[in-house]
Structure prediction request, 363 residues.
Amino acid sequence: MELSIVILNYNASVFLELCVESVTRATKNIAVEIIVADNDSTDDSIARLTATYKNVKVLRLDDNYGFSKGNNIAVEQARGEFICLVNPDVIVGENVFESCLAFAKVKSKTGFIGIKLIDGKGNFLPESKRRVPKPWNAMKKLLGFSSSYYDNRISENQDGETEILVGAFMLGRKSVYQQLGGLDERYFMYGEDIDLSYTTLQQGYQNYYLGSLKAIHFKGESTIKDTAYKERFYGAMSLFYDKHYPKGKIFSGLLKYVLPKFSRSKKPEIATTHKDQQQLLVTEDPNFKPDWATEISTFDNLNTDFTTDAKIIWDVQTLEVDKVIHFMEQQKESNLIYRFLTADRSAFAGSDSSHERGEVQKL
Prediction:
């Protein structure tokens, strides 16, 4: 087995289906297993998944163990030489895995590989490549000055060495993951990817960012900035500094006890919808003409001169994700919004920013 793809799910439902579909298509030439570890979801995630994807290995966990432990349990059962952690709200391009594996095999002392992530509107997510968050850099980031927090040594579209990757997509050898102890299970959510990336560097391995390879990370599905988020986020960063910067007790205490009380909570935003909103279906299937589509177009005939609130619905079954991502990046300054239709065409989902929970509509 060459590759094990681990997707840790918690109530991601339709987003999970879109993720698995893209992963399935991107690994058709690879000896692969797809493992979905479910953190005791309360929605219909697994029922919908297993109805369509019979070859996916599902691990039903008996509790919500968080990001670190849930992934570690799945990796322990993985049979691949390489493993890749993928968030359930990620849609990958067709060439991502083959190219990452080819890169990893020729680079010695490779730790983990990350790729360029964009949000549901086509905007680059700068956390795709970061510097080690030394206390002073982290403080500047918290104060709104992020230039030294993100890795600006390479551009968003370049390939090169980086320090910190994001846990939404991390590919590396299973043996390296296990040698490093996997994700530190003291982190429930947030910070564990920083910790693993940093530990990788400390053990003499190198992390890489491949900006030529792309995926969509809706992100808002797991980032609700409420009180619980603040406690987990600042608590995770406090743990990181306690562990790796034991002399920085003052900064660690500031993160753990002071900042959560003064930072503002944000209510989860929901993607806005309008009953009269134009729904443009983009498909290569001439026989697919659903009643809900206001207009239908092929990809090559797609006209971007729409009304300001036009919603483009991508027919995942017939379109190339790489082409869709390129289009979204080119049109990121427009007012267009995007939704992705599941392979069985029973639902679509998407989000309009990295701060939104997104829209899920079942048809």
